[in-house]
Amino acid sequence: MTTAESEAPFKRKPSPRRLKIRPRTIVIHIVAWGVGLAWLIPFIGVAMVAVRPLSQTGFGWWNLSPFTLTFDNFVAAWNNSGCPLSLGLRDSFLVALPATIIPMFVGALAGYGFARLHTRTREYMFLAIVLLMAVPQMMVAVPIYNLMITLRLVSSLLSLVLLHSAWGIPWIILFMRNFFRTLPVEVEEAARVDGASDFKIFYKIVLPMSLPAMAAIVVFQFMWVWNDFFFAQVLIQNPNWYLSTQCVPRLVGQFTVRPYDLMSAAAILTMSVPVVLYVVLQRFYIRGLIGWTIKG
Predict the structure, then answer these.
(1) pLDDT by residue (tens digit) across 42-81?
(2) Domain ranges for the chain
(3) Does the pLDDT at position 289 exceed 70?
(4) Which pick of 12, 100, 138, 186 has the fewest CB atoms within 10 Å?
(5) Alpha carbon of residue 112 to chain centroid
(6) Architecture of domain 81-291 in CATH?
(7) 281, 218 contact by CB (below 8 A)
(8) Is the pLDDT of residue 296 over 80?
(9) In this structure, which long-range contacts are made by residues 137-145, counting pairs with CB atoms below 8 Å and at least 24 apart in sequence?
(10) Alpha helices, DSSP H only, in 236-281?
(11) Can you spell out the DSSP letters for 7-63?
(12) Which backbone phi and psi does 126 adopt, to 5 degrees?
């Protein structure tokens, strides 16, 4: 056995590389966790008030002794005689579902046209649509209210469906136009050579490839329509058709102010719907958001 062979087993193995943690990384994590906890604390307070009797949270929800878990506040908010949350959630669904589906397909079709069809006025029309996104709600509240009076749609859920559909179309066009521009054109050209029309190419080829983007649109549009309070307060004046966002603040009472136990329970029930939708569509939602930022 040679000297080299005898020394081979005794060679020192290279020590594993130590992970260097920069002070900047530590600071970023501390700030991120701090901001996250700051946003989480109000939600914890609302949840604690909702699931405990009023006698235990009257002097502060942070007093954890005694702690009795109860769902009486949820039942009372659901069946409230003044503004039952069960009817409010029903009306919110009747508005949010069509006000999400209608602008999603209209905006997707228009976005495909802006991405693929070349005309002289295309860029000017697209600029006008983008500018419509900058119009604040308060600026158009009075004209919209007068228009709904003319159409006899005040205190009708149809008024909110039409309004939110029209309000959501501009940003959906912008979103889908950017997404469609990342899709390969070769597949569409091959289908066009085979005799497929533009509309057939859209709903049989392009639309199935756009499911992640459509999921992102569903989450965004549904969440914005569901959480709307301003336009609902302007257009819905009949208590029988109040949305959930209108019922929540009314649970504290109109003449005799009631503590915030019922309102906290109603807030938890109202916010749970978009949260569940986000959890269900989370995978597609993230792919849809980053899909048009990465080409290929």
Answers:
(1) 888 888 888 888 777 777 778 777 888 888 889 988 988 8
(2) 22-70, 81-291
(3) no
(4) 12
(5) 23
(6) Orthogonal Bundle (1.10)
(7) yes
(8) no
(9) 137/230, 137/231, 138/230, 141/230, 141/231, 141/234, 144/231, 144/234, 144/235, 145/234, 145/235
(10) 244-250, 261-280
(11) HGGGPPPPPPPPPP--HHHHHHHHHHHHHHHHHHHHHHHHHHHHTS-HHHHTT-TT-
(12) -65, -40
Radius of gyration for the alpha carbons in the chain, expressed in angstroms and rounded: 27
User: How many angstroms separate the CA atoms of 84 and 68, rounded?
Assistant: 25
CA-to-CA distance for 57 and 260, rounded, in angstroms? 10
Assigned token pair, 99: 């006000």
Q: Are residues 92 and 272 in contact, defined by beta-carbon separation less than 8 angstroms? A: no
CB of 89 closer than 8 Å to CB of 269: yes
CA distances from 133 to 128, 166, 173, 174 (A): 9, 11, 11, 10
Which residue's entry shows tokens 């989480």? 40
For the packed helices 211-226 and 261-280, what is the interaxial angle rounded to 10 degrees?
170
Could you give the residue ranges of the DSSP H alpha helices within 117-156?
A: 122-132, 137-151
Give the amino acid at 56: Q
Residue for token digits 């501009």? 170
In sequence order, which residues have a C-beta less than 8 Å from that of residue 88 and are 6 or more positions away? 242, 243, 244, 245, 246, 247, 248, 270
> In terms of residues, how long is the chain?
296
Q: Is 150 exposed, middle or buried (0-12, 13-18, 19+ CB in 10 A)?
A: exposed
Q: How big is the CA angle at 175 (ends 219 and 94), to the nearest 5 degrees? A: 35
